[in-house]
Amino acid sequence: MTFLIAGPLDPAAELASFEDRIGDAGAIVTFTGRVRAASGSGNVTSLFLQSHPILTAQGIQNAIDTAHARWPLAASLVRHRIGELGVHDPIAFVATAARHRRAAFLAADFLMDYLKTEAVFWKKEVTATGTAWVEPKDTDYADKARWNNNTETNECTE
Amino acid sequence: MTFLIAGPLDPAAELASFEDRIGDAGAIVTFTGRVRAASGSGNVTSLFLQSHPILTAQGIQNAIDTAHARWPLAASLVRHRIGELGVHDPIAFVATAARHRRAAFLAADFLMDYLKTEAVFWKKEVTATGTAWVEPKDTDYADKARWNNNTETNECTE
Amino acid sequence: MAKLCYFGRLTDVTGTAEEVVGLPPHVSDTGSLVSWLETGRGWTGLLSDRCVRIVVNNEIQDHDIDIRDTDEIGFLPPVGGG
Amino acid sequence: MAKLCYFGRLTDVTGTAEEVVGLPPHVSDTGSLVSWLETGRGWTGLLSDRCVRIVVNNEIQDHDIDIRDTDEIGFLPPVGGG
Predict the structure, then answer these.
(1) Quick check: B106 and B95 in contact, CB under 8 A?
(2) Going by fewer Cβ within 10 Å, which terminus of chain A is more open, N or C?
């Protein structure tokens, strides 16, 4: 499975092909993350996403394995952009399918929290006033911590 | 907004058009419910969904209004099939868009719980051995009850 | 004449989704309508089931309500979508 | 020769994403590599930042580890995707 997409990511096309390979699953949840113009550092005009040649895909595969071990999923899909993105371009697409909706919702939520906080990507925002590398927000870590049994918070945020 | 669809429902096409009307939202969650072949009453060959001429759309609109009052949504979409459906046909499609993913996930989950337990539809399953009207499962009511402040359960299940 | 509408599993018993009937004088509210139909048609317990909701002119009624011979009255068994 | 890879914001300082260098004899583990680079290049605190993870041959190392002149060593600042 190719997780990393250098060209445009098309959520509707991804959903259409995902529907064809989920067997008798009755529930599909998708998440699409898009580049927002309004960011903490101003009006974003473009975004650059860098991945690691080995660790990025390895980490996503581990998160998928964890999700399948935790919830009875019929199928799942993770796609993540790398390279240059424009405003409102889809960055990430996650789809999960299960017999019943609860598992599909929880697994999609879990995978997105992984992508937002632990996945190996570096993100640079380009605004009118310059460029800035973006690191995860505290709210992202708080979301991710919901899935852990401990209350550990990331030690790299203030 | 037309909630009720008598012809085929195409989740990918719905997602594609939804993406075009969500402004600067960074998060889109969709849910697709499909007809499952394996049901409690055997192998389903088709399904018939009946709606009420007034109350069905009115109830969906109320649920959407509640969702928008409760979470900061940029947009939402509900589509529900009526009439005859075959196995694996999409029955329901919900999409929500928000700045951040938490609101989009919660609102989609809430709207699906509404559709599963309170929405005004009657569902008849056709199997090899006959037809059977299906009423909500206890798990559906339990999911719905998560959104209430009280612990009231539906009095029409055993 | 009143219009009666049956939904979902009720139509398996009523045999029809809609019918137009003249209400006799003693059928003046939803309670007496239910009794009259259940007795006259042999539908014992079908419409008086506490899970069957009654709708008069597209408004759900939780209690007995007066009806007139021009009303549209719907009988709704428990719903289940998605 | 060892291959050094810098990711994310580190490249703003290093000016390059990759370089191939010969390690001097006293640079025998990740700790001494970090000191050697920070001192020699004037990158004070850049790589010894506790939030920068060190990867040797694609394995994340939480503690100092011996390195050889043929290894690939990556420096990873905090990540943020989605």
Answers:
(1) no
(2) C
Residue D43 pLDDT class (50, 70, 90 cuts): very high
Q: How many whole angstroms separate alpha carbon C5 and alpha carbon C75?
A: 6
Query: Which range is least confidently modeled, A74-83, A114-123, D29-38?
Result: A114-123
C62 touching B (Cβ < 8 Å): no
Compute how many other C-beta atoms are within 10 angstroms of the C-beta atom of residue A49.
Answer: 22
Whole-number pLDDT of residue D40: 96
- Picking from A35-39, B5-9, B22-26, which range would have the lowest pLDDT averaged per residue? A35-39
Does any CB of chain A come closer than 8 Å to the CB of residue D61? no
Complex ipTM? 0.89
Q: In terms of CA atoms, which chain B residue is nearest residue C74?
A: B52
Q: Are β-strands C2-6 and C18-21 bridged in parallel, bridged antiparallel, or unpaired?
A: antiparallel
Tokens 């559709």, located at residue = B115
Greatest pairwise CA separation for chain D in angstroms: 42
Of C82, A101, A102, A26, residue with least CA distance to B117 = C82
pLDDT at residue B128 tops 60: yes
Residues 6+ apart with CB under 8 A from C80: B116, B117, B121, B122, B123, B134, B135, B136, B140
Strands B38-39, B121-127: pairing is: unpaired
pLDDT at A61: 98
Q: Which amino acid is at B86?
A: G
| Chain C residues whose beta carbon lies within 8 Å of the beta carbon of residue B140 | 80
- Beta carbons of A28 and A104 less than 8 angstroms apart: yes
Q: Is A36 on the interface with B (CB under 8 A)?
A: yes
Distances (CA, A) of A147 to A15, A64, A97, A109, A152: 26, 14, 19, 10, 11
Across chain A, the runs of DSSP E, i.e. the strands, are 4-5, 27-34, 38-39, 42-51, 73-81, 83-86, 90-98, 121-127, 130-134
Residue A12 has pLDDT above 80, yes or no: yes
Which residues does residue C55 pair with via DSSP β-bridges, in sequence order? C60, C74
What b/e string do you get for B97-121 counting C-beta neighbours within 10 Å, with b at 16 or more? bbbbbbbbbbbbbbbbbbbbbbbbb
- The rounded distance, in Å, linking the Cα atoms of C24 and C42 is 18
List pLDDT tens digits, range B69-110: 999 999 999 999 999 999 999 999 999 999 999 999 999 999
**Alpha-carbon gap, residue B1 to D65, rounded angstroms:** 62
- Comparing CB atoms, the residue among D51, D60, D81 nearest residue A123 is D81
Among left, alpha and beta (phi > 0; psi -120 to 50; other), residue C8 is left
Contact call for B31 and A29, based on CB within 8 A: yes
Cβ pair B80, C81 in contact under 8 A: yes
